[in-house]
Amino acid sequence: MGLYLGSSVFLILFLALSFYHYEKATVIAMNKERLKSSAQKISSQIIYSFMHAMPLEITRSDEFEVALYDKNRELISGNPMKVALEEGFYADSTYDYYVDMSAQLHHGVKFVVLKSRNADKEINRLILRVLAITIFSVGLIALVGYFLSKMFLKPIYNERIKLDKFIKDTTHELNTPISAILLSIERLKREPIEQKILQRVELSSKRLQKIYADLTYLLLDQQSHEVKMINLKELLLQELLLYEELANKKEITITRHLQDAFMEMDETSAQRLLDNLLSNAIKYNRQNGTIDLVLTPTSLSITDSGIGIAPQDKERLFERFFRANDHEGGFGVGLDIVKRICDTYGITIAIESEENRFTRIILNFSI
Questions:
Q1: Are 78 and 68 in contact (CB under 8 A)?
Q2: Which of 54-63, 107-116, 152-161, 168-177 has the lowest mean pLDDT?
Q3: What digits encode the pLDDT tens for the residues 119-147?
Q4: CATH of 226-364, one of 3.30.70.890, 3.40.50.2300, 3.30.565.10, 2.60.40.650
Q5: Could you read off the pLDDT of 241-295 as tens digits, one per residue?
């Protein structure tokens, strides 16, 4: 943006300077033409008055000062002027002059000298006009640049906020299972091994493993994976074993209506797909809740009795780092992963939900 503003200002200054020089030359040329035309007009008046035996009278002007000289270069009328009495244009630091010799000694006048009273006034007006246009143009460019920078930098600013929030949430998510593992290890050092402590270590380890797997999938999602025919029923049963302890901890009842469903996809993506759906169904469920799994050859539906989804949040569910609430764990990448996998393999997603009642996610494998 700095380069844009700098180059724009430089261009405006260049154009302003070029315009000034061009207009200045035009003003000077027009001023000379007025001097010459006025001097010739005065000479014509002198000749006319002489031919009609009229007294010598010169029309005065606020724009010019007039002096008349005879053939001996003696002043006849007007104030003396320090200028060479030869026909042509002259100038000093302040005034422009023109000497005309077309009076031809009528009334004894050989030299008609005109001095411009306001030669610099038009130049000064031109300078002020150019400065005003330049300042206005620079201000306009700066204003446009400001709004363009706001428009172009807003997505970057929003992404930076998301990234900051993601880092904070990730730190929090990692800290919880790590602290649980460390505390359990300390107790194991002092006391006999208890089954609950081992379960806590196992659940915390699995939680860390899921965070690592999600982040690895996001960062390495461009790596090639082997696509093969997968039975989603078998893979779903394996994933349920991993989440059995977590579901038992919240006393969640899982009902299953599973048929064989085959699909060509890589196993890592299939695991991440099912893993995130099951994890959310448990995480956002209520204590003593239920989860209903229905798998057919063409679809999978997962229904939980949890907190549901607010209507205003449905459109943003698949945005990376978006979290509908801050009361449950997670940092907003699970459904983003689900959406990316579904888009890759042509799976359609439908979501049905009522707040504080249920959420149902339906995956349709048929094309």
A1: yes
A2: 168-177
A3: 567 777 778 888 888 888 878 877 877 77
A4: 3.30.565.10
A5: 877 877 888 899 999 999 999 999 888 888 888 988 998 898 889 999 999 999 9
Enumerate the domain spans of the chain.
2-117, 226-364
Percent of the chain that is helix, strand, coil (3-state, to 5): 55, 20, 25
Looking at residue 71, the DSSP 8-state letter turns out to be T
Q: At what angle do helices 2-51 and 119-190 cross, to 10 degrees?
A: 170
Cα R_g (the chain), whole angstroms:
46
- Could you identify the residue written with the tokens 């009842």? 253
The larger pLDDT score, comparing residue 172 to residue 191, is at 191
Q: Which residues pair with 65 in a beta bridge?
A: 115
Buried b (16+ CB within 10 A) or exposed e, 198-232: eebbebbeebbebbebbeebeeeeeeeeeeeebeb
Q: What's at 133, amino acid-wise?
A: I
Please report, in angstroms and rounded to a whole number, the separation of the first and last CA atoms in the chain.
46
Parallel/antiparallel/unpaired status of strands 253-258 and 290-296: parallel
Strand partners for 253: 290
